[in-house]
Design brief:
Blueprint (H helix, E strand, L loop, with lengths): L19 E10 L2 E3 L4 E4 L1 E7 L4 E8 L7 E5 L2 E6 L2 E6 L5 E6 L3 E7 L2 E6 L8 E7 L5 E6 L8 E7 L2 E6 L11 E6 L4 E7 L7 E7 L2 E6 L6 E7 L6 E6 L8 E4 L2 E4 L7 E5 L4 E6 L8 E4 L6 E6 L5 E6 L5 E7 L3 E10 L10 E5 L6 E6 L3 E7 L4 E7 L3 E6 L6 E8 L4 E8 L1
Antiparallel strand pairs: 1-4, 1-30, 2-3, 4-5, 6-7, 7-8, 8-9, 10-11, 11-12, 12-13, 14-15, 15-16, 16-17, 18-19, 19-20, 20-21, 22-23, 23-24, 24-25, 26-27, 27-28, 28-29, 31-32, 32-35, 33-34, 33-36, 36-37
């Protein structure tokens, strides 16, 4: 199982954009390992796609890794989870800067200078399914054992403030899948406050954050699928069944206020409205079996990969109306798609409905002068939504970010006709 990288952005035609652009799209190709012959047939590779010239190149090969499972972008670096190791890479040169052994590593998340890693592997038992590393040098800070931490294989991670929410699914022990979301305090590195998703919420394969909720896409016992809504205030969990077949390994992504997902062996994409917790029907324009889905945060285009897991990988790019814009060949099993978003040099003026955002950097209180009602959404540098609100009225508006971790964020304003994005730093 893998993680579908979620980069949230609104995608309505006619929007104008400022301040940011996608410098490169980083693709983690999982390769092909023949388990019967215990042979790496096609190695794990990292490739980059340039949206400006539509050129794709392989920038690194991770030798001796049977598979790869995650890649996250964090400022000038990105981190890769592959088989038994975690790699830290330079985002410009793609050179390896550090690595550490972590058997069964699955998913990654970063908060300030702490890198969180979940673990799990078929027919393998660990004494810890949750590690925390120093993001600078990959020194192990904490190995949270099965007494104090998750007792079973863990998967996706969502960061909210100084808390990391961990999906515990035990997905590699057939017939004994779990449905638990636990909470890791990133200041004290203590784990607890587990939420049981119930019998219909077992085997959470994907976690996403939207508003004041975390949503999990669950594969149950691989005979069906569901979505659970987990309130951040600790109130009751709601679970809705999706289908009588699983959604496969991570083929789901948040697209605006809707979860887009695909049922195994089907060639259509389905849409689930998280605000009303109900299916809203299949999407026109998509007609392939997909492996990874990710929404690009600047234009709102959807990237979708396809593969037969042993001979090819293709990535298709769709616009907001689901029209296929282009496609490109990648490596075998392109299983993670991440976006390197940067500020456009020399761009200072906002679109007319947002005059300024200040102070920048800020210590917590952020102000914006707006010319119309709009929504605001703040995402972390690796694409996770950490704040959203409705701004009503004209003039100065205040957003309180004092509970967020220090670092860089993207602030997106949307008034229904225009959209503008500003990069801010929280000191």
């Amino acid at each position: 199982m893998k993680k579908a990288i979620l980069v949230v952005g609104l995608c309505v035609s006619g929007f104008t954009f400022a301040q940011n652009y996608v410098n490169q799209v980083i693709i983690l190709n999982e390769g092909y390992y023949d388990y019967a012959a215990s042979t790496i047939v096609t190695p794990v590779t990292i490739g980059t796609y340039n949206p400006q010239n539509q050129n794709y190149v392989v920038v690194d090969t991770l030798e001796n890794m049977r598979f790869a499972s995650d890649l996250i972008v964090a400022g000038d670096f990105y981190y890769v989870a592959a088989d038994t190791k975690i790699f830290k890479m330079d985002i410009n040169t793609h050179q390896e800067l550090a690595s550490v052994t972590c058997g069964g590593v699955r998913n990654l998340a970063i908060w300030q200078n702490k890198l969180v890693a979940t673990r799990g592997e078929y027919l393998t038992t660990y004494d810890s399914y949750l590690h925390v590393y120093d993001a600078t040098n990959l020194q192990l800070l904490a190995s949270i054992d099965t007494v104090q931490g998750p007792k079973w294989a863990s998967q996706n991670i969502v960061i909210d403030g100084s808390s990391a929410y961990i999906a515990v699914n035990n997905g590699y022990e057939w017939g004994n899948e779990k449905g638990i979301v636990g909470k890791l305090d990133l200041n004290t590195l203590t784990y607890g406050n587990e939420v049981d998703l119930g019998v219909n919420g077992t085997n959470p394969d994907n976690l996403v954050r939207s508003g004041n909720y975390i949503y999990s896409v669950n594969n149950k016992d691989w005979s069906g699928a569901s979505i659970s809504r987990i309130p951040l205030d600790g109130s009751a969990v709601a679970t809705i069944s999706l289908s009588s077949a699983s959604t496969g390994c991570g083929t789901s992504a948040l697209r605006d206020n809707k979860l887009v997902y695909q049922v195994s062996m089907e060639t259509v994409l389905n849409e689930f409205d998280v605000t009303v917790m109900n299916n809203v029907g299949p999407l026109n324009g998509f007609a392939n079996e997909y492996y990874e889905l990710a929404q690009e945060p600047v234009s709102g285009n959807m990237y979708a990969s396809s593969t037969d897991f042993f001979s090819y990988g293709t990535v298709r790019i769709y616009d907001a109306s689901n029209t296929l814009l282009t496609s490109f060949d990648a490596g075998v099993s392109p299983g993670t798609i991440a976006f390197d978003v940067r500020a456009a040099a020399g761009v200072e003026n906002f679109d007319q409905f947002v005059d300024q955002v200040y102070p920048n950097p800020t210590t917590g209180k952020l102000f914006a002068t707006v010319g119309s009602d709009c929504t605001v959404e703040i995402t972390s540098i690796n694409g996770l939504t950490v704040f959203s609100a409705e701004l009503t009225g004209i003039g100065e508006q205040m957003m309180d970010l004092t509970g967020l971790a220090k670092g860089a964020y993207f602030v997106t304003f949307n008034n229904g006709n225009q959209k503008t994005i500003q990069k801010v730093v929280l000191d």
